[in-house]
Amino acid sequence: MKFSATWMIALRALRRNPMRTGLTMLGIIIGVAAVIAMVAIGSGAKAEVAASIEQMGQNMVMIISRAARSGRVHMGGDSGVALTKQDYDAIRQEVCGLAGATPEVRANAQVAYGNENVNTTIYGVSEEYPAVRAWRLERGEHFTGLDIRRATKVAVLGQTVAANLFDGGDPVGQMIRIQHAPYEVIGVLRPKGANMMGRDQDDLVLVPWTSAMVRLTGETTFRSISVQAESAERIPEVVEQITELLRQRHRIPEGRDDDFMIRNMQDMLEVATSTAQTMTVLLGAIAGVSLLVGGIGIMNIMLVSVTERTREIGVRLAVGARGADILLQFLVEAMVLSISGGVLGIALGYAVAHLVSVRFGWITLVSLDSVALAFVFSGAIGIFFGFYPARKAAGLDPIEALRYE
Amino acid sequence: MSEQPVIRLEALDKVYQTGEVAVHAVREVSLDVFPGEFVAVMGPSGSGKSTLMNLIGCLDRPTAGRYWLDGEEVGSLSPNELSRVRNQRLGFVFQGFNLLARTSALENVELPLLYSPQGHSRRELRRRSRVALERVGLGPWARHHPSQLSGGQQQRVAIARALINEPALLLADEPTGNLDTRTSIEIMAIIQQLNQKGMTILMVTHEPDIARYCRREVMMRDGRIVSDRPVVDRRDAAADLAARPEPDAEVPA
Ligand SMILES: Nc1ncnc2c1ncn2[C@@H]1O[C@H](COP(=O)(O)OP(=O)(O)OP(=O)(O)O)[C@@H](O)[C@H]1O
Ligand SMILES: [Mg+2]
After folding, report:
1. Residue A220: pLDDT above 90?
2. Is B25 inside a domain boundary?
3. Contact assignment for B112 to A315 by CB distance below 8 Å
């Protein structure tokens, strides 16, 4: 018997009962659609997290002072030494594989222009900040090494500050006052939007770190230093060199913990994306359960249908069908149900993912992988859940089947 | 007739075991049917006619005894070989038609071809089942479902299905049961014509009038064959039909 004949037989059998066929398929459609949509939402979240971390700077390594973290209060010998200008200079001079570096000091301050004034955060950074943090300027220029050395009073504004103070006008070349001292605006940063926690990242002003230390914070140490490795491959050696250098400079004896922390963006990315990945898997698994339920639905219908169609099976056996023909017919029926359900489910899942991204503004990613997986899985469900009823049908005795009422 | 019998039964027994009670439906039936014969199996209700037909049709297995079909012992065949025999060598017309519901006459007739090992093309399937339907006068009803056909028409669909694979042996279990006289004679005319072309036919009937269209008459009672004799006053169904007034022309709904 030709396989095409089996196809024909199976399709005819399904067509004979469109209602039952449709309802059975619905289980698979919903299951597959749920998997596709959930995985799309999860992958979208993962991509979003990854993007926002990458936004912090490529190949960035951050050194954070433990002393600074404990609120600058020296707590005996253990609290260690804060990050100093000398540490910063040593890192710049002695560590190989650096593309750039910037210290970071921070102060909240009032910034005024004319009658407008806003409270914002002032960041003291180096001339390499835009490169290290992958944050380019929209207008004007960033300050130079000379500005750092001379501690000039220049400022680069974040979008929010620029908008609040200048209300659409061009701030470049204007004089603003930070804590009553006049600064010249030389540039405006590109907008970055809110971060993952919802904080507005554009609400800031950058000034040379030297100026910030002298005029705003009054401190002599940094809360953190960010450096950029030349490439992702060089991150580990950069981290190692900095650790070595700082331990030596801070005179930390063998066996003692570092008095600083090194945060590697690559690691943060991995942690964050693996969290998002876990969420994706979880969502997918929940949706997978509904797919499983859909599969059991197929088995249920097929079992009922074997009983209901016992006479039909008897007639087929009587006119010369072999057990294998019956088995194949029921398997093909189950597979047609599950695969066409799968295809429709993929389409529906895609539509749901699209709707979610349009309606809620979430990023959703329908990956080819999940589509392929859903397709293969629904086919497998057809075979798996179709097999038992099919075997039951194939094992029927012709005369018993014909006599069945 | 010295040639090999199509059917040779030797002390065939069939016992149905239902709970405590054992029903001996067929007892020690021995029978030879030769090529080209046209046998009527008669007997009262419950005498084991259908049971015997099912055994001969390879649908059921005997409790005891032996059965040779075309010289081949059926008891030694595997289920798959039995399927092949049913498909290729036998045509079976059931007492209750056994057509597939919600399936057109054409697709019902096509069924044995789908399971035949030759693997026909779709076009060939259609063509052959059309021819088979036309042979039983149902050409215009090809698209109708069993529920849209009269009893006689359904019976003819069942006959067309039995004939589609051109079997050498036709087994018909009451092909004229529940049909009016004229329709019965029409069916008998079809069957007689098949027999004239050389087909061996075994047919169950409990109507003596119908048995007169056959050539040999086997009588059963309580599972045994009690008489086996040739039909003496044989009738010709085509002639009987010609002698009767024409009914209103059949037109599909
Ligand atoms: N599946 C079965 N299980 C148990 N007993 C059965 C079964 N089929 C038939 N019988 C019994 O076997 C006997 C013969 O039945 P069978 O159907 O062969 O009779 P029949 O001659 O065809 O009758 P009818 O003319 O009414 O069709 C009956 O007594 C019947 O009750
Ligand atoms: Mg009977």
Report:
1. no
2. no
3. no
